[in-house]
Amino acid sequence: MLIRVGLAIKDARLQSYLAKQLSDPDVRVEVFGPPRSVWQRALHSGIDVVVISEAFVLRPVDNGIAILNELPESPTTIIIHGGASLEEHARLAAAGADVVLYSGLSKTRIYEAIDSALESRRQFIQRKRFDRRGSVEPKISDFLMESPAMQVFMEEVNQVIPSDSPILLTGETGVGKEHLAKAIHAHGPRSVGPFISINMAAMPENLLESELFGHEQGAFTGAVRYRRGAFELAHGGTIFLDEIGEMPLHLQTKLLRVLQDYEVKPLGGENIIELDVRVIAATNRDLEAAVSQGAFRQDLYYRLSVLTLTIPPLRHRKEDIPTMVRRFTTLFRYKIGREIRGFSERALNAMCSYDWPGNVRELMNVIERAMLLCHSQEIGMAELPNVFHGDAVDDGKLTPEILLGTDNLLSKTLPEVQRAVMDQVERLYLERALSKTGGRINEAAQIAGIHARGLYNKMKHLGLRKEDFKP
User: For the chain, what percentages of helix, strand and coil (3-state, to nearest 5) are there?
Assistant: First the structure.
């Protein structure tokens, strides 16, 4: 990540010296001035480290330091004080200043102290990233499977990991493109840097340019302070551009310039920011067809597809399903706190025979849902959605064997069987109602003859999501 340092120092020579010494490819220095606008500039500049003379801090000083500490970036605050009194320095530190330096020290000593604070800031950012990712950081080993298709694919992946060239990940929805991008980042030379993800399809078009490239204060109505873009945040690491095929044409031109020159100009800004990032893009669309239709720039496609990796869909590597079922069962066992050994042989065979149009994401959803509904230590056919029960469900023959499965029917009491049958019948009915309405809750509730709020409650209980029924 690019560290932004703001200087607001009364001594012009010291300020000039520090601006020169601190400048670095990974550090962007901004000098605040003139004196009458220093405070407002400091509040709206989006900086990580502020070096400010005590005379420029808003009065009372305790309140001014508190305002700095409460900024969205939680900047490291370094106060340059004109007095050498230890008591005064202690008071400023107690008010929230991270570092207090006496202006009478040599310029070299002051620079060394600030440089040390910058290193502490870098470590702080690293700790925040680790805490956010937690202990389930994606690994390349997550993709090591038994099927020939995945073994060939992973040989290609291992070849491109050490490179810095752009990567284009293609494949159907749900195959794990973002998970793979994170794993490539975690195992590559940029693993100590940030991983920043932007989904082009999920971002409103009028906000996408600002999200990608950042904006200056006053760039548009509502831009009350500087905002870093995803490219600046990804400096020193990797930026993942998901659903790249949905990017508007006018922004494709700007993205191409960024990829060619590796520098970005924030919206409404004049200064260029040099970048050091690796770009990984992903799409489930045929970009070559989009190019021929004029919906995607040809030169951008060539720039992004220097290295192209296509993740095989799950139906082409069914040999991997048993291994994946065991892995996800273990994962969800800790997540939801259920002691479930695994799936019955019949249930596992049904999962291996299914085509999985939603790929790995659908597999994970089915496993998590089954574990939440299971009343024993083994998951049977009763806990699987109706698509796994064959043609009998489509014919409307809802026998107990279909609804509950013969492999664990007698492991339940009669009241438990009755509740399970009712849940299955309600699930079948609501799945069909939601499929008919394309996931529209109000229309499905009208079909079912219940209130929309009641439908929501039943969907939550049964593990149904309206997003899964949208066309």
Answer: 55, 15, 35
Type and span of the H or E element at 78: strand 76-81
Amino acid at 427: R
Cα–Cα distance for residue pair 75/24, rounded to 1 Å: 19
pLDDT in tens, the chain (471 residues): 678 888 988 888 898 899 888 887 888 888 887 777 788 887 877 888 889 988 888 888 888 888 888 887 888 889 998 887 788 888 888 888 888 888 888 888 888 888 888 888 877 766 555 444 444 578 888 887 888 889 999 999 999 999 889 999 999 988 999 999 999 999 999 988 889 998 888 777 778 888 888 888 777 777 777 888 889 889 989 999 999 998 999 899 999 999 998 888 888 887 888 889 999 999 998 999 999 999 999 999 999 998 999 999 999 999 999 999 998 998 888 778 778 888 988 889 889 988 888 899 899 999 998 888 888 888 888 888 877 875 444 444 445 444 555 455 566 677 766 776 777 788 888 888 888 888 888 888 888 888 888 888 888 877 788 877 776
Determine the distance from the C-alpha atom of residue 110 to the mean position of all C-alpha atoms in its chain, rounded to a whole number: 38
Tell me if 370 sits within 8 A of 379, measured CB to CB: yes
Write out the DSSP string of 418-456: HHHHHHHHHHHHHHHHHHHHTT-HHHHHHHHTS-HHHHH
CA–CA separation, 40 and 463 (whole Å): 50
Report helix angle 12-22 to 107-133, nearest 10.
Answer: 50
Angle of helix 359-373 versus helix 345-353 axis, rounded to 10: 160
Give the length of the chain.
471
- The answer to whether 277 and 239 have CB atoms below 8 angstroms apart is yes
Phi and psi at 459, nearest 5°, equal: -65, -40
Q: Helix, strand, or coil here: 220? A: coil
Count Cα neighbours of 426 within 13 Å in the Cβ-side half-sphere. 20
Closest CA to 236 of 186, 262, 275, 196: 275
Q: Buried (b) or exposed (e) across 457-471, using 16+ Cβ within 10 A?
A: ebbeebbbebeebee
Q: Which residue has the tokens 């409650």?
A: 457
Q: Where are the alpha helices (DSSP H) in 70-133?
A: 86-94, 107-133
Q: What whole-number distance in Å separates Cα of residue 351 and Cα of residue 365? A: 13
